[in-house]
Amino acid sequence: MSSDPESALPTVSVPTPVLLASPAAATGPAHVEEPVAYDGILLAGFGGPEGQDDVIPFLRNVTRGRGIPDERLEEVAHHYRHFGGVSPINAQNRALKAALEDELARRGIDLPVYWGNRNWEPYLEQAVTDAVDAGHTRLIALATSAYSSFSSCRQYREDFARVADAAGVSDRVTIDKVRQFFDHPGFVAPVSAGVRDAVAGMLDDGVDADTIRVLFSTHSIPLADAERSGPRDVDWGEGGAYAAQHRAVAEVIMDELAEARSDAAGIAWDLVYQSRSGPPSQPWLEPDICDVIETLPDAGFAAVVIVPLGFVSDHMEVLWDLDTEAIEAAAGAGLRAVRTPTPGIDPAYVAGLVDLVMERVQGTPASDRPARTALGPWFDVCRPGCCENVRAGFKPAAAGLAP
């Protein structure tokens, strides 16, 4: 796998217009190094139900176009119903919006934040309409997902194109998007700190380092989608750019752990997956976290540190699949278990998101942008063929070159 994804890509010799792009991004440079005078930030989230009556309508939105009957949706709905039908994600995004506004104000940056979701109120359509009605038509988007895949990057870019068209403002609004931030210091720092604290607690309590396993967990996706994540002209290895990005960040975190505590050097770790859905006949990224936990006692492990590496905050998948199912699996295996925090509204994470916006406002050269892995800094304008949806192919999408 190339450590320099940009150098491994073919040069785009003919300028290709990028949908909804600012003039600086319109021809599709990998990194936009010209300043752009944005006048608003579009915070894009997944969305979640906020009551029992919302659960099935929300899941219909999530699975729209797949023809899944309500009876099957109820199999997933019980996760939400267990928590009163309320996903934590909207409250988390409200808190993130407020934290971003505070950080912007602290720095004296006059950029209003408009928040909208893909699958539940407040919807992206309303956020874009509100921005345009307020006279803010040069938007820089922050999606609440750090990694490259269809659902975590391209689908948001398709959302931007869809809602701008539906609102009838495609001729009046530009929507650029910050780079995927999986290896930005602001994202990595709070995750790394959580791992250090969890491992230190175990070591200080007398747990032998050789019996501790760190499991970095992220959302499983169909293998075919994973293989199409990131630019297609780079050999990312098994799991595409999606898995490569997670592995690279996990390696950085484990190296930091070893530097912080010499007695933690050599602690074993794995990248594992969770929250699989879909038919058993469809291959998804593996191994499943609970399956791995069940094998640990026989391999000589006594403790497990569960790291929600793929999540920016405590989504339902964290509360149910990790805090409930994975912790129960660890208890059943007789393992000591700790789940580390997600970035949430950690000050380093919030400041890092504002830094990402300011990269584009200031046109920061790629060589001056921070990245904790050799894969970054990631692209400002997604490359041709990036993160195809296997089921539906390519739809119009902002902030990327057409396939």
In short:
This protein is α/β, with parallel strands linked by helices and 403 residues long. The chain has a domain at 185-339: Rossmann fold, CATH 3.40.50.1400. The protein has helices at 55-62, 70-82, 89-107, 124-133, 150-166, 185-204, 223-227, 240-260, 289-295, 316-332, 347-362; strands spanning 40-45, 113-117, 138-143, 174-177, 212-219, 268-274, 303-307, 336-339.
Polypeptide structure, described:
Helices cover 38% and strands 11% of the residues. It has a domain of 155 residues: Rossmann fold (3-Layer(aba) Sandwich). Strands 2-1-3-4 form a four-stranded parallel sheet, with helices on both faces. Strands 6-5-7-8 form a four-stranded parallel sheet, sandwiched between helices. Helix 5 links the parallel strand 3 and strand 4. About 3% of the residues have low confidence. It has eleven helices and eight strands. With 403 residues, it is an alpha/beta fold. The longest helix has 21 residues.
Instruction: Please compute the radius of gyration using only Cα atoms.
Output: 21 Å
Average pLDDT rating: 94
Helix content: 25-40%
Helix/strand-derived class?
alpha/beta
Largest sheet: spatial strand order: 2-1-3-4
CATH class of the domain at 185-339: Alpha Beta
CATH topology of the domain at 185-339: Rossmann fold
CATH architecture of the domain at 185-339: 3-Layer(aba) Sandwich
Span of the ends, CA to CA: 22 Å
Task: Classify the beta-strand content into a percent band.
Answer: 5-15%
Compressed to H and E, one letter per element, the order equals EHHHEHEHEHEHHEHEHEH
**What's the number of helices?**
11
Q: Give the biggest beta sheet.
A: 4 strands, parallel
This entry's quaternary arrangement is single chain
Low-confidence stretches: 5-15
SS elements, strand count: 8
Cα shape: globular
